[in-house]
Design the sequence.
């Protein structure tokens, strides 16, 4: 087997349901370079962790020899300038500090924790909405609408506008699939572009409104922030809002769905969670290692030659960091292919690391813990209709497109 064929197999849709045997093969060549001009693929835990903290690695696509598209924050994908996840210091640090001031400590230290009651209410409403159904699609009926509703409440989108917001998000997320991205004339891309325009206009209206009348929401905080780092421009506010909406939403959908799928495959732990909600935090951390919603980071560039494991990665080369392969590296984790929520020293790569570690991680953790606890408690005898379920096309943001379950009912 050639290295080139291995990389093609990893990104091929036929491998989406179970890429982990291929990641095991990949780790045998810790720095994989399949062809001239192609990416350097890094798959071992310690190498990935080191590069995530290495200032010689850039997130700015303009440093690439041959810039490529980015599913999460490509300017063409959003119609806005790059968000801070696609920038390097010092501009990255300035924008992230401003955004973090409205998301957590020190200015809003209790924002996420204070949302727990609201999160439980949203989860309860969604599960109650299942009614007397005996077959459900967990993605469409729960894992997708939950984080969209949460981000609307967090940003300050009026509740009566949430259906419009979801209608714009659907085509934008659908257009992230690689199959359609290369064809801007495809119907899904045209629908996404129209949704981006409408979403941008709507958010711009909200920004103007919050400028005149700030409220207790994150959008108001972004608009009125005037700390030591200055303030965001309107375009920077919009770019940050879209980042929170699209990147954070899609990863949380996958984390919840992958989580329930894993628990149904490991019924002992599902029952354990039902009996003891206190294990939810451990379960979610192990899920982030075992089935991370972001499988790889394909948009890093070295800004100088880098020597790694005897291989010279030339300046300007693209680097792929395969987080999911590092998360199952036997050099770092004992028995890595076993799902074990009692694992000690669980320093996974599920949210990345370094200055670009996942901005929304605190919220995603709380959302997923509450979601899985309530699903385990209230769904009566859930069973997978098909295993593996149908997956999304996207190789970066990996998760089931549908997760159909048979249930005996919904407990009160």
Sequence:
């Amino acid at each position: 087997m050639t290295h080139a064929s291995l990389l093609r197999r990893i990104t091929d849709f036929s491998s989406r349901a179970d890429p982990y045997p291929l990641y095991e093969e990949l780790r045998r060549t810790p720095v994989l370079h399949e062809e001239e001009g192609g990416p350097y693929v890094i798959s071992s835990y310690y190498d990935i962790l080191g590069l995530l903290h290495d200032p010689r690695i850039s997130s700015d696509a303009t440093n690439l020899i041959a810039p490529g598209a980015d599913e999460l924050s490509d300017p063409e994908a959003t119609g806005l300038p790059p968000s801070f996840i696609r920038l390097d210091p010092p501009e990255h640090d300035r924008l992230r500090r401003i955004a973090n001031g409205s998301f957590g400590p020190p200015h809003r230290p209790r924002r996420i924790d204070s949302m727990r009651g609201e999160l439980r209410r949203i989860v309860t409403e969604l599960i109650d909405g299942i009614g007397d159904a005996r077959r459900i699609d967990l993605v469409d009926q729960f894992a997708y609408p939950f984080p969209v509703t949460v981000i609307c409440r967090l940003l300050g989108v009026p509740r009566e506008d949430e259906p419009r917001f979801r209608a714009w998000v659907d085509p934008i997320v659908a257009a992230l699939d690689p199959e359609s991205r290369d064809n801007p004339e495809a119907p899904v891309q045209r629908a996404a572009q129209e949704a981006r325009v409408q979403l941008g206009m709507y958010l711009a209206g909200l920004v103007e409104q919050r400028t005149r009348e700030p409220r207790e929401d994150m959008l108001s905080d972004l608009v009125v922030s005037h700390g030591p780092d200055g303030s965001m421009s309107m375009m920077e506010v919009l770019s940050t809002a879209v980042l929170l909406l699209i990147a954070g939403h899609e990863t949380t959908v996958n984390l919840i769905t992958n989580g329930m799928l894993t628990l149904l495959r490991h019924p002992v732990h599902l029952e354990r969670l039902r009996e003891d909600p206190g294990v939810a935090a451990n379960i979610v951390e192990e899920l982030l290692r075992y089935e991370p919603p972001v499988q790889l980071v394909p948009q890093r560039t070295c800004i100088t030659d880098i020597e790694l494991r005897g291989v010279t990665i030339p300046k300007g080369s693209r680097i792929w960091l395969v987080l999911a392969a590092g998360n199952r590296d036997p050099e770092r984790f004992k028995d890595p292919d076993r799902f074990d929520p009692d694992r000690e020293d669980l320093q996974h790569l599920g949210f990345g690391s370094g200055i670009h570690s996942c901005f929304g991680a605190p919220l995603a953790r709380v959302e997923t813990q509450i979601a899985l606890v309530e699903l385990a408690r209230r769904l009566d005898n859930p069973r997978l209709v098909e295993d593996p379920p149908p997956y999304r096309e996207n190789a970066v943001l990996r998760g089931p497109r549908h997760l159909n379950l048979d249930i005996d009912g919904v407990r009160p």
